[in-house]
Design brief:
The protein is of the alpha/beta class and 307 residues long. Helix content is 39%, strand content 17%. Strands 3, 4, 5, 6, 7 and 8 form a 6-stranded mixed sheet that branches.
Length: 307
């Protein structure tokens, strides 16, 4: 399996294995575990940041990891610098996605008997709608209509499809203590199959397509399977991404040596993040800068280049 140099997963590999996956490489193979040794990457736990911004037991999440890999300066402003929180703006796509997640949580929650039909789902949709971040009433109305169509199709397909698994839980945070940090992840849904397999289901409101390679290369999906394997040792796990706009799904199972390798790599990267001196990080212009809430802070650096 090959990964583009631009992908987040490739950047993850570059961070963890800099001598193997250099910036000059355009693609790399996923199954690298037999070639690598992480002995030289062991980091001293005593170097963990002891500041007021980091709790005594630091936490790492898929969101933190992907933010760091995309831009360490954005990581600093998002999680460590209090002055930056005033610059955060509501995003329409967050509002849209959060609304759909809330409704699907109720639809799949066995304890919520009031949301089982299309009409009940649409009523829950209306109750759950978040209107923050839209630039106009017209934009919001268009998004609302799209969400309604998505849910109507979702419920119809769910009612027609034979039941193959039961929902174990919805919208739950899992955590595992790795000693000097805690890995946490909030999972949309976990289904349990008759053979004992536990499947993470992750809703994507902005996607129209997804492949097995996409799931395999998704750091969050890998983290969720790692957390599930810690909570339910010995149980087979699988992760599935559901593109809500089209109903397209794809799944991948992380197991055996592949799971062990990911655990070693993610713990190494977590310690790299938690021991980094972010005050020494210089802002570097990237394509994402034009859409970043923190651009005004980066522009205060006289060395930060103009667009």
């Amino acid at each position: 399996m090959l990964y583009s140099r631009k992908s987040v997963y490739f950047q993850f590999l570059v961070k963890v294995h800099p001598t193997v996956f250099s910036e000059g490489n355009c693609q790399c193979r996923k199954r690298w575990s037999h070639q690598l040794s992480l002995d030289s990457l062991t980091l001293s736990r005593s170097r963990l940041r002891q500041t007021s911004h980091v709790p005594r037991k630091p936490s790492i999440s898929p969101s933190k990891i992907t933010t760091y890999l995309a831009c360490p300066v954005k990581y600093r402003f998002t999680y460590l610098d209090d002055r930056a929180k005033w610059l955060l703006r509501a995003k329409s796509y967050y509002s849209f996605g959060s609304t759909l997640h809330r409704v699907l949580q109720r639809f799949h929650d066995s304890g919520d008997s009031g949301v089982t039909t299309t009409s009940e789902v649409l009523a829950a949709y209306d109750e759950s709608w978040i209107d923050a971040g839209f630039s106009s009433a017209e934009e919001m109305a268009e998004a609302y209509g799209e969400g309604k169509e998505i849910l109507e199709r979702y419920v119809a397909e769910a009612q027609e499809k034979p039941v193959e698994a039961k929902t174990l839980f919805v919208e739950r945070q899992l955590r595992h203590d790795f000693g000097d940090f805690v890995l946490i992840g909030r999972i949309d849904r976990v289904d349990e199959y008759e053979d004992g397999t536990l499947e993470v289901v992750d809703y994507k409101s902005g996607r129209t397509a997804v492949t097995e390679e996409d799931v395999a290369a998704d750091i969050a999906m890998c983290c969720y399977q790692l957390l599930l394997s810690k909570k339910y040792p010995g149980r087979p796990t699988r992760a599935r991404i559901l593109a809500l706009r089209t109903g397209t799904t794809a799944a991948h199972s992380l197991a055996g040596e592949e799971l062990e390798t990911f655990e070693r790599d993610i713990t190494t990267l977590a310690r790299m993040i938690l021991t980094e001196d972010f005050d020494q990080r210089k802002a570097v212009r990237k394509p994402m800068c034009d859409y970043c809430d923190f651009l005004t802070l980066c522009k205060q650096d006289p060395d930060f280049p103009e667009a």
